[in-house]
Amino acid sequence: MSQTVSFEQIPADWRSPGSYVEVRPATRRAGLSSYAARVLLIGQMLTGTATAGSLQRITRRDQAAAYFGAGSAIAQMIEAFIDANATTELHAIGLAAPGGATAAEGGIAFAGSTSAAGTLAVYVAGQRVAATIPAGTGAAAAAGLLQAAVVANTTLPVTATVSSSTAEITARQAGLLGNAIDLRLNYRPDDATPPGLTATVTALSGGAGQPDLAATLASIAAEDFTDIAIAWSDSTSLAALTAELTRRFQAMVALDAHGYVGLRGTHGALLTAGSAQNSQHLSPIGAFASPTPPWIWAASLAGRASFHLANDPARQLASITLPGVLPPAPVARFIEVEQDQLLRDGNSTWNALPDGTVALSRVITAYQVSTLGVADTAWLDIMTPKVLSRIRFDWNAHVRLTYPRHKLADDGSPAAEFGDAVVTPRIMHGVWGNRCKLYERLGWIEGAKETVEASVFTRDASDKNRLNAVLRLRIMGNLMVLASVLEFEA
Fold first, then answer.
1. Is the distance from CB of 269 to CB of 247 less than 8 angstroms?
2. End of a domain among 157, 178, 205?
3. pTM (predicted TM-score)
4. Which residues are CB-neighbours of 232 under 8 A, at least 6 positions away?
């Protein structure tokens, strides 16, 4: 019996002589479906050309200040992201401070008088502000010189005034975020307060209020993003983000996105914050007393992760650096046992290199227990949801592209044997096997032969138009721990 050929353009009863050829791609053995990372940053804005709450496409670093205001959290996030990843498609939403929000305040109080000229090095949110202090300068004059240096730097997230001998520092944007703006003296080893002058730092505090993140996420519910980083780490904002990420991962939505958030606090505070989350779609990263604000940590991590995991979703991010992120002073960094505890409570970890560069150690998700409250490591590493998202994306795209109008028959159907527009459970099982061979060659999965054999394809008993399947696979591991015993002969 001859093979049946299905045409999309040539009529079956055409009688006019001639040679007619349809042109269509053969996708049965196609490689991976085209996949592009698409990142969204959400943070607080000042004044700029962008409308608060509107989605903006970002292609240049200077758009950050133009759209959202220099020194705003969202502008800093954009700049940090581009420094970490200049090629991935980037979008941003700036939110205005809510009504009634208060701005965080702090300051630096001076006393004494300089016995020699020097440079006062003040760090605001990780940015160095240098004020030259001449010999014989008193406390009030020193406060004025620092105030002028702060005001002159329009990229800072703060402004400054002088009260007596104190440079009063106020966050530019009202809200909770201002409390996380680090203010300190002499971060670098060669920094030193001019002799004879003393300076006392009061940390910024008192900031209150944050925008409604849930409403913002609802406004872009149909937009496709692979990665989302937010500026806020309060429980309300994180609840809104994780709920949206969970919704996006559902089968009937399939707009998979992974979330990133920065945390700031002591080791105990980070353990508490991490253990309060349980999402396989969120990767918190934190530090104690880092000069760099947590929203920059989040944006930089999102930049690195979105780039490298788009290239290979199964490969760990260890040793990848976060440009522009400053680690705490050595005394405030977490030791190995503390890092291990963080990894058990939903926090990603990092190390500081000798030159002060921050390098990722292990990037995990906040997932810790099953829905029954049982400790579970199924979704521990960020690679797990990323691999599953890529495979689901590729499988769905391949099926839709290759079998858009096919009929469904039982195994052994003559129509499937002789027709090119009919599929059966066995045929689709073979297609899954071929895709798994591709995923295995890419190093995303292993043991494809066994997992494909264990996969199931069956026609629905009550719906002749439905094919049900269980797609089994085993994600490739990563070399993270090498445990050895070094024996010697005495």
1. no
2. 205
3. 0.94
4. 176, 177, 210, 213, 238, 261, 295
Q: 76 with 217, same domain?
A: yes
Query: What is the per-residue burial (b if ≥16 Cβ within 10 Å, else e) of 85-119?
Result: beebebbbbbbbbeeebebbbbbbbbebbbeeebe
Q: Clarify whether residues 60 and 83 are in a common domain.
A: yes
Provide the residue range defining the domain that includes 459: 406-490
Say which residues have a Cβ less than 8 Å from residue 350's Cβ, sequence separation at least 6.
285, 287, 322, 327, 358, 359, 360, 361
- The pLDDT mean for the chain works out to 95
Task: Write the pLDDT tens digit of every residue in 312-352.
Answer: 999 999 999 999 999 999 999 999 999 999 999 999 999 99
Same domain, residue pair 342 and 365: yes
Mean pLDDT of 278-301: 98
Please indicate, yes or no, whether residues 115 and 258 belong to a single structural domain of this protein.
no
pLDDT tens-digit readout, 406-459: 999 999 999 888 888 999 999 999 999 999 999 999 999 999 999 999 999 999
Q: Is residue 111 part of a domain?
A: yes
- The pLDDT tens digits for 134-178 are 999 999 999 999 999 999 999 999 999 999 999 999 999 999 999
Question: Residue 85 sits in a domain of what CATH number?
Answer: 3.40.50
> What is the distance in angstroms between the CA of the first residue and the CA of the last residue of the chain?
80
Place of tokens 């989605």: 55
Q: From 205, 240, 269, give the residue that closes a domain.
A: 205
